[in-house]
Amino acid sequence: MSVPTEATLELDDIQRGVLSPRPTPYAATYLVFRIEDRAQGRELMRRLSAVVTSAADPLSPLGDTWVSAAVTFWGLQALGVPRASLDTFAWEFRQGMAARARALGDVGGSSPETWETPLGTADTHVVITAVAPDPQRLEAAVDNARPAYDRLPGITAAWRQDCYALPTETEHFGYRDGVSHPAVEGSGIPGSNELEVPLKAGEFILGCPDEIGGVLTPQPTVLGRNGSYAVFRKLHQRVAEFRRYLRDNSTDPQDEELIAAKIMGRWRSGAPLALAPEHDAPALGADPHHRNAFLYERDDPAGFITPGGCHIRRANPRDSAVAGEVRLHRMIRRGAVYGPPLPDGVMADDGTDRGLMFAFIGAHLGRQFEFVQSEWMNDGVFFGADHVKDPVTGSHDGDAGYTIPRRPLRRRLASLPRFVVTRGGEYCFLPSLSALRWLGEPHD
């Protein structure tokens, strides 16, 4: 839809956490705060403007270490942002994630009533995220940010989640994580798929033209420009149940790995079925320059190699003929593991909380995150499969199985339980550095 251009971004005003892919390996932490005093909340914003890392210099002395700050709708209210300004933000953001639960598939055991306190409530105001290549540099980043919020009366720490890379650099289901990242015009950061034309900056940066030529900017301009929206979700993974499902639906260990690949669209090494259809290719899976260089429509339109219903083809159909223009629904996605791994071979749940902190970055909450979640992940109509849900993250209730296209007969697996349960989350606004300073001033 877009033609490549020489886009110019004000990188020194954009938070680095908007555009930079997560380092590998990594350590990360999420900190949630509640603002109980408006003046102290503004002081917090002023201090954060001096701590948050900009996107101007990815090769800074800090290396792959940065601090980001996000504010919820409730946080903007607590800071005294005028109603006329609040009304210019995306309506999904103004409602909050809990109010959007049914559309997102957060029902039953994932419903907001079960979420960790205070996630999904009006007591979640500010989210500070720190990311680094290792725990030592992460702690240094947190220490650097601590003066921004420490000993501020009226600012209360409400929730924390520490994350890290497993020794295998996989997530808890065993798949290599963090293998895909879109290119954004003007960012200077290459995408992971050389076959994908860089996306217009306005798909991710507010105040810039997007794929259809539109420009979204919450008002006043100093507040909205160079910002973005962020979604964070804590997702508990039922690892033992996932392992049992693979075992019970396979004939031998080799077949089990094939089923795991057909469900995800990649072998657990990270090698895509599109490039390694018969056997795993660990060297390919570890190669960031080649493991994403593929499309679907020319070589596999019917999904005999990479099933249309598998996780990665749903999340990014690439050039597939699907309902919805794919480039309008691209997202920057990041996952960070939390909780200890379940030991290899264990098939019984040990009661430990483990999973992923999922983050989405984009300028269009509705047509990016919510569209993909509701229409592509929790429905199958877009690729002609009725209401079949994503096999890995879908909101299953045991009433539908998974079909693997195959000649001469397709392979039908047993009914899918819910492998991923939402523990909480929120929609956030990632202000520019100048907007953080603006939020530090009175605007009642």
UniProtKB/TrEMBL annotation:
It comes from the Bacteria. One of its GO terms (cellular component) is cytosol. Transmembrane segments: none annotated. Keywords: Iron, Metal-binding, Oxidoreductase, Peroxidase. SUPFAM superfamilies: Dimeric alpha+beta barrel. GO terms for molecular function: heme binding; metal ion binding; peroxidase activity. Residues 27-144 form the DyP dimeric alpha+beta barrel domain. Its cofactor is heme b. It holds the Pfam family DyP_N. Belongs to the DyP-type peroxidase family. This is Peroxidase. It comes from Streptomyces noursei (Streptomyces albulus). The lineage of its organism: Bacteria, Bacillati, Actinomycetota, Actinomycetes, Kitasatosporales.
